[in-house]
Specification:
Protein name: EAL domain-containing protein
Number of helices: 12
Number of domains: 1
Helix content: 40-55%
CATH class: Alpha Beta
Bound molecules: guanosine-5'-monophosphate, manganese (II) ion, sodium ion
Organism: Bradyrhizobium cosmicum
Distance between the termini: 45 Å
Strand content: 15-25%
CATH architecture: Alpha-Beta Barrel
Strand order of the largest sheet: 1-2-4-5-6-7-8-9
């Protein structure tokens, strides 16, 4: 309850900030973009991870205001990056299904003078389950706009191949749990390998999340994965750390 009251004023008090975690392209060994991840610097409690406040934001409806702040900040930050890379933003279900979301995105892109193709929205399978019809129309509208949509945490929800067949995803992000277990569970490696090859055959991009070791990276290279993300490449960094990372991997 107290946290909820605090969250209501967090934007106004400038307590929210974004950190950015790179995507590394395995072919070119270069950074192709960053995922924006939300953080809350609470004046008394210190740094609060999204797992502890996104739920509150969703329950109270604050997620719309916070989500808009995230989109705007991500676009504004991206506008300062020197190369044509993308920024990916995580969405909650309520945001995705909100009628005003397209206008919010259009306005954020215009205000930051960012081209739509540089913005990617990350949604999860669970967001498609209950409102498949409206999800399809929002997805198509985003695509019409020129933005792209990634299917995040792939494999953890009710992964339906129908989604991949019928919905215009630009990318699949294989959940980090699969990458973690890949080297110890042959079944898991088989799944990762198959999802990568499926994505490639469908001409959808594929990202492996949570890559922490060189061995995992080696497997993913052999499987022909497009992009990787994880602590091995880089932890999420503050906005002012992005340029230094780009210098090392461009
Ligand atoms: O950054 P971290 O690993 O702590 O993120 C934990 C979870 O919070 C992830 O599922 C991530 O997708 C989610 N998350 C991070 N930033 C945002 C955001 O800006 N909006 C929403 N809705 N979820 C976010
Ligand atoms: O649900 P989503 O995929 O958006 O969540 C991303 C979360 O995963 C972020 O909170 C981020 O901090 C975390 N993360 C990113 N890379 C790694 C990694 O290599 N290992 C682990 N354990 N977590 C990671
Ligand atoms: Mn994500
Ligand atoms: Na994910």
């Amino acid at each position: 309850k107290a946290l909820q009251a605090d969250l209501e004023g967090a934007i106004a008090r400038d307590e929210l900030f974004l950190v950015f975690q790179p995507f590394l392209d395995l072919d070119g060994n270069r950074i192709t973009g960053f995922e924006a991840l939300l953080r809350w610097q609470h004046p008394q409690r210190g740094l609060i991870p999204p797992s502890e406040f996104i739920g509150i934001a969703e329950e109270t409806g604050l997620i719309h205001e916070i989500g808009e702040w995230v989109i705007r900040r991500a676009c504004m930050t991206l506008a300062d990056w020197p190369v044509d890379i993308r920024v990916a933003v995580n969405f909650s279900a309520a945001q995705f299904h909100n009628a005003g979301i397209l206008q919010t995105i259009v306005q954020a892109l215009a205000d930051a003078r960012v081209e739509p193709h540089r913005l990617e929205i990350e949604i999860t399978e669970s967001m498609l389950l209950s409102k498949y019809g409206s999800a399809a129309s929002i997805l198509n509208a985003l695509l019409q706009l020129g933005a792209t949509v990634a299917l995040d945490d792939f494999g953890t929800g009710f992964s339906s191949l129908t989604y991949l067949r019928k919905l215009p995803f630009s990318r699949i992000k294989i959940d980090q749990s699969f990458i973690r277990d890949m080297l110890v569970q042959p079944d898991c490696a088989a799944i990762v390998k198959s999802v990568i090859s499926l994505a490639r055959d469908l001409r959808i991009g594929v990202v492996a999340e949570g890559v922490e070791t060189a061995d995992q990276l080696e497997y993913l290279r052999q499987f022909n994965c497009d992009e990787v993300q994880g602590y091995l490449i880089s932890r999420p960094v503050p906005a002012d750390g992005v340029l230094a990372l780009l210098d090392t991997k461009q």
